[in-house]
Here is the input.
Amino acid sequence: MNIWIAATIALCTGFVPCVLVVVRSDMPSALVALNLAGVLTVLILITLSLAFGRQPFIDLAVVLAPTSAVGLLVFVRFLERRG
Amino acid sequence: MSLQHWFTDVLLWIGVGLELLSCLGLVVMRSVYDRLHLASPAVLGVVFIAAAVVVDKSFSMVGNKAILIAAFALIGGPLITHALARMARIVERGDWRLGAEEEVEVEEP
Here is the structure.
């Protein structure tokens, strides 16, 4: 097995704790888990692009990294205003 | 196995391990601040995995973009952590400033 595929599978297991926290915890903790899930997704896109030899697909990770952060900050701003 | 592949493997698995430890900490801890504390090393995981990509592919198109992602994670990670902690405090106490909810009187000299 390609090492990048193995890394992808290992990173995918990290989604399980994130989903558990999102489902079972309060809103601030759920946002922390969402942040971590975004980081995991970026890394999975990087490793997948190398695993399948489709190197231009790393652009997806380059785009997702800032957009997931900005989306999270919008959530944060909304919750701050709601108090 | 060449030295390059060996370094790639080591960096990659350190990065993956850091990410999985961060995820584990998310479940183990109960307070949102503890969870934030343990989720922050995920940024280091990004740096290690980007380093693995650079060692494997050198400074090619992929390597340069991996560096870009790592730089973004290094800059954005602490900012997001700060914003999340501030939001958690506002949700918890109504204001993020120290003592603002208690209306502490400050003696003037």
Residues 24 and 30 of chain A are 8 Å apart (CA to CA). Chain A touches chain B at residues 3-4, 7, 10-11, 13-14, 16-18, 20-21, 25-29, 31-33, 35-36, 39-40, 42-43, 46-47, 49-50, 55-56, 58-59, 61-62, 65-66, 69, 72-73, 76, 79-80, 83 (CB under 8 Å). The longest helix of chain A spans residues 27-51. The mean pLDDT of chain A is 92.
